[in-house]
Amino acid sequence: MRFFVGRGRDLRIAKFVDIAEFLAVRGSDDFCESFRDQVLRHGAQRGVHYALYYCRELFPDAVPLDLVNALAPEDLGHLDEYGNLDGNPVKWAHDFTDRLFGSHRSEVGPIPMT
Q: Over the stretch 103-114, which tens digit does the pLDDT of each residue have?
């Protein structure tokens, strides 16, 4: 993951557009319930919550709030971290909007976690 972060390839608005468009077509209540169950069953809660949470920040009408809340873990620290899959989570130095749109995209700016 750090490879992609350092090159600015981790966060692209197109990824969020894809999610928003998919949910616009397939996001029925039945689908969302089934999707939630699958995410929880496969232990993908944090990663999917991250994607849906920030997709909703960009496109509030595209992502059902109930789905985002149903997948929210108690600790929301993952929303401001990267490197969890590498086993070494690091806090971002910039907020989400700056990470997505800022000109400093190649500056990772981590704060080591303790």
A: 655 555 544 444
